[in-house]
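Q: A reviewer asked whether we had any structural model of the full assembly, not just the individual parts. We don't, so I'm hoping you can provide one. Inputs are below.
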Amino acid sequence: MKKHSGKRRLAKFGTLLIVLTCVLSLAACGSKVKENTVLSADDVAGKTVGVQLGTTGDTFVSDLETDGSNTKVERFNKGADAVQALKQGKIDCVIIDEQPALKFAGSNSDLKVLDEEYADEEYAIAFAKGNSLRMEIDGALEELKSDGTLDKILSNYVGEEIGQHPYVSENNGSKGTLTMATNAYFPPYEYYDNGKVTGIDADIAQAFCDKLGYKLVIEDMEFDSIITAVSTGKVDFGMAGMSVTEERKQNVDFSVSYAQSKQSILVRDPEAAAAASSFSAKFKADFLDDARYNYILKGLVNTLIITVFAALIGIVIGFVTAMIRSAYAYTGKPKFLNLLATLYITIIRGTPTMVQLLIMYYVIFASVNASKILVAVLAFGLNSGAYVSEIFRSGIMSIDKGQTEAARSLGLPYGKTMRFVILPQAFKNVLPALANEAIVLLKETSISGYIGLNDMTRGGDIIRSITYDAMFPLFGVALIYLVLVVVLSGLVSKLERRLRANERK
Amino acid sequence: MSVSNEVLLTVTGLEKSFGENKVLKGITTEVKKGEVISIIGPSGCGKSTFLRCLNRLEEATEGEIKFRDYTVTDKSVNINEVREKVGMVFQHFDLFPNMTVKQNIMLAPVQLKLMSVEEADKRANELLTRVGLLDKADSYPAMLSGGQQQRIAIARCMAMNPEIILFDEPTSALDPEMVGEVLHIIEELAEEGMTMLIVTHEMGFARQVSTRCMFFNEGVIEEENAPEEFFGNPKSNRLKDFLSKVL
Ligand SMILES: Nc1ncnc2c1ncn2[C@@H]1O[C@H](COP(=O)(O)OP(=O)(O)OP(=O)(O)O)[C@@H](O)[C@H]1O
Ligand SMILES: [Mg+2]
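A: Here is a predicted structure for the entire assembly that you could use as a starting point for your response.
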């Protein structure tokens, strides 16, 4: 009987899922994309323009935003996101650096780059103010320029001879490691290829590291985090197709320029009928080609690691602080620890998890070289602890006062009363709330991408930035979260039933 | 049923206030070994509060309570030692729902290292036989009737081998048909010479079982006497009035 209902529930759930997928897919395909309305640079004013947050393009169109032309600017964290919005007709054009624009147009038959260009700009490498490493790398860059290496690297990514001059590393990292911050959604300068960050910047960095005898490590993060990461010393330098601007110069020092670029306008191509690739082709491109499902699987592992360890930390912290606060409520002691615990809970519950995560990474661990997973585990663990604490405390308070009095009247001291009488009952009462907190925690870890951690959500995002298909990567990721949550809830209700059954013998 | 001259409990000038509300206004009395004292009085007059001061579930505001050599009202006294010897049975039984009947009974003696597990198990079986519930040893409280639960609560209290038991309206939460079985057990305890203070509304029971009856009114002991005199020849008008209403 019981088994039956479990199976039926599963079947129900499966059906629901399939129906949901169909509805959403139809919605995604059914709509027709708006026609292109930006034919020249003059048309940009008054339109909805996409840019990548914090780029030169952003600075440029920001002027349009306030000049009364009614131009709307949408700022995306990644160039690829802007391109996707363009393809879906959510925005009218994207203003982005020339080479990425060409690359995007090349890999998307329904997009094209307008012939007109905006202002020239110089790409350079960002260093923390006063970092002497800059001089060293400037020297190496000059050498790479004069011996032709730089041009060779560029020609491997743009122009007629793409792929014909791959840079081969000599790999002699004897002087230690240099960490480079980048945002790997900006082809051809940096992008993911077979799970690795590659591109012009990556090759040039590798080249000067080889020359100077360093080992190169590349850290992928949000574009607008790069300057902070550089100036706080989290990384040794930032290199992300970054042009030199006055604002940036206030926070970092720049190397000599290593490449020139222009801002280009990317629009939908009215000629090319959007090559609507079939479902199965999209599915294949999203998950099977180059074993891209690995982005999600590796992310899933990280998501699970973060969730499990953060939950453990949360339970320990939550339990300890709840005990402190309950003891204080009952006996008036310990005063100081109670104050500390209350302060902790107030702060954690009063600020967004995302801000806590960023503070943990960029402030608390600014100068410490801790792994991102560790930072995330600590941040989410501390965060969860505050909620778990309140759950435990309300569980303890929910137990009738008569229970404590009955136990104490038998001569049992406070500690034993808690341990044998109150906590077992409280624990059972709060089990659903704890499970709910675990579920919230699991889903909340999806913001880990903001410190450049490759969790499952970001895994899906990476695939999206490669294939420009939003549906399958996002649905795939959503589906895995959903399954995890359903399994978790199932386990808890099973445990709950067992605990309840105990009392009904 | 014999009252000795050995004094177990001395209460002197006990006062208790909750904020502005003065509930006990100076109570002085003595409890001798073997006494069975019924406490009656109108609702809200402080009967429960008095009982709860005796094992310090409530802190007295003024006055002194002594149990043998322990000064209960003294902050430095180890109150847990007092509570091991001064048991309490509550109106709502307050059995631990997360434990079986037997675990309820064995918890305190074992955890306080007064008995080994084997001894406590043996004692639990004795007590369960005595309250007629040996077959419920492995049941959880939720599966028992109110009367059965209160009998277990008495057994749990007895397991500590207390010298005094405080009963706070032990039958008030019970359906009428279950009152008898609980009173019967208290009666047996009285016959064995257990010292007890019983807050109750069961006048017949009070008259039959107690060695002394106390009438509480507005925070003082208005009148106390042996049951025949107390019920047969009440002195104060308030007691006469009260008895005329409840009898
Ligand atoms: N914890 C408390 N805080 C504040 N006031 C209380 C508290 N406990 C009892 N009181 C008050 O003290 C007075 C006496 O209460 P108590 O429970 O001792 O009365 P009682 O004689 O046992 O009455 P009943 O027959 O209804 O049980 C009441 O007015 C009650 O409101
Ligand atoms: Mg009462």
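A: Points you may want to mention in the reply: Residues B 18, 21, 23, 43-49 surround adenosine-5'-triphosphate (ligand 1) (CB under 6 Å). The radius of gyration of chain B is 18 Å.
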